[in-house]
C-alpha cells in the first residue's frame, strides 16, 4: 500500500477521536485560588449531600432501626455525623464547638435532619473562611498536631465512613441509596 493511502486511512481513523477531544471541557488556564481547599470542599459537598439525601430517604419509622443490637440506630448515625461535623469544623476554624450531643438529644427524623443541615451549614462557613495558607496552620487534635485542612479531610473521610453504614441500613430496608440512583442524587442546595 502506498504511504499516501496509509496516511489517509490513519487520519480517517483518528479524526473522530480528535473531534471528540474537542468536546471535552478544557482545564482553566490558571488554577482556582486555593486549589487544595476548593478540592476538599468539593469532596465534602458531595458526601454530605449524599448523607442528607440518605437521611431524607429513610422513613421515620426506621430511624430506630439497628442491624444488630450493638451498633448505632440509623437516627443515631445521623446525629453522630452532625456532631462530628461540628467538632471537626469548629477545630479547623478555631471556634468553640457550638453544638454537642445531637446524637444523644435528638430522636425525630425532622430534628435530626435539621441538626445535620445546620452542621453542614456550619462547615460550609468554615470552608468559606479557609484558604490554603490558613489550612496549613497546625492545631492539636487529641495527641496529634495536624493542619486545619487535614482536619477537614478527616471530617470528609469520617462522613464517608458513616455514609457507607447508612447505605447498608437503607439496603436492608429495601431502599436504594442516593448514590446508586440513576442518575445519582445531587447534593441539596
Automatic annotation (TrEMBL):
The keyword Nucleotidyltransferase does not apply. Residues 53-164 form the DinB-like domain. Transmembrane segments: none annotated. The keyword Signal applies. Gene3D superfamilies: dinb family like domain (1.20.120.450). Pfam families: DinB_2. It comes from the Bacteria. InterPro entries: DinB-like, DinB/YfiT-like. Residues 1-21 form the signal peptide. Keywords: Signal. This is DinB family protein. It comes from Telmatobacter sp. DSM 110680.
